[in-house]
Amino acid sequence: MSDHYVLNADHSTRPASLMEWAAAFEDRASRRVASTTLPDGTYISTVFLGLDHSFGEGPPQIFETMVFPSADDLNEELCWRYATWDEAEAGHERAVALAIETRSAETVGLGPEDKSAVGKAEAPTISQESDNG
Q1: What digits encode the pLDDT tens for the residues 50-88?
Q2: Which helix H or strand E contains 100, and what residues bound it?
Q3: What does the domain layout of the chain look like in residue ranges?
Q4: What is the SS3 assignment for 91?
């Protein structure tokens, strides 16, 4: 099985040689699934990696969502990987919801036992970009 994959125009993927992957990897815009910046600056990014991170266990994990303190501070806080574009889109939405919930709990000083109260208030407005084309 290949370690390198390229993204097709319809967001499906296929195995590729190292050289084909490297050439396709240069197109950064086509690899972005979604990015979101929360009001506190937290940055969530989901991209197509094209490198299999499954380590031989299950389907190729070639998409990734990461949560960072901000777009200027890329010290990874959380990371998830996926096999398909659709899984990556859904995972991005879950990561945004989790980041909002976590930041909301921290902002109001709730402890872990009180997080059930989070989410009953209106979620903050977020800035989100997505390439669904």
Answers
A1: 999 988 889 999 999 999 999 999 988 899 999 999 999
A2: helix 85-108
A3: 29-123
A4: helix
